[in-house]
Amino acid sequence: MDIEKIATSSIENLLSRNPYLRTKIDSNDKTTVWDGDIFVYCSKEPNKKNDDLLGKVPVQVKGRKVETIENLNLKKIKFRVKKDDVKKYLTDGGVIYFVVCMDEKKEEIFYNSLLPLDLARLIKRYKNQNSFEIEFKPLPKTDVKLADIFVDFIKNRQKQQGTLIPDILCFEDFKK
Q1: Which is it for strands 53-65 and 77-82: parallel, antiparallel or unpaired?
Q2: What is the pLDDT of residue 26?
Q3: In angstroms, rounded to a whole number, what is the distance separating the alpha carbons of residues 66 and 5?
Q4: Alpha helices in the chain (DSSP H)
Q5: In angstroms, rounded to a whole number, what is the distance separating the alpha carbons of residues 113 and 173?
């Protein structure tokens, strides 16, 4: 079983059906920190124009083999992410991170939109750890809800880039 290939194919299959999204994901396991990008458009038209492009979202895809999907908590999962990767995602303005859980017959896709503020908080909160356990939720499958994840990411990334104050990342930091 080629876990990486199945994981990236699952993402490609779902996102390629969405009229607002175009995928460019590398399916081999030798890529660097990112596996590719999702291009987000404001138009459903099949022939996309540059004027319709809202932005590009970097993505990372990981596969996880499980005994059976039925035994999995389908409301949320946790997955470990390397600190060095989190630092790279922060320099790039964030990432949408996918974890594809699979058994012999079926896959379930989970995601987390890791924006600059989220990443900076992780690094600060767990500064002495080499990896972080991050929570992921199920990826919606309807066109609009799925596209909204990427549109929200683009809009929130634009708001957050360049506005982070490294010493104030959490509400508790204001007290200091």
Answers
A1: unpaired
A2: 82
A3: 16
A4: 3-16, 83-91, 116-125, 143-160, 171-175
A5: 23
State pLDDT tens for residues 23-39: 998 876 556 788 999 99
pLDDT confidence band for 129 (50 / 70 / 90): very high
Tokens of 6: 């199945």
8 Å CB contact between 22 and 148: no
Cβ-count burial 113-151 (b if 16+ within 10 Å, e if not):
bbbbbbbbebbeeeeeeeebebebeebeeeeeebbebbb
What are the structure tokens assigned to 13, written together? 């299959």
Residue identified by tokens 């932005």 is 55
Tokens encoding 165: 């104050």
Cβ 22 vs Cβ 33: under 8 Å: no
- Can you point out the beta strands (E) in 5-145? 21-25, 36-41, 53-65, 77-82, 95-102, 107-114, 131-138
pLDDT reading at 165 higher than 80: no
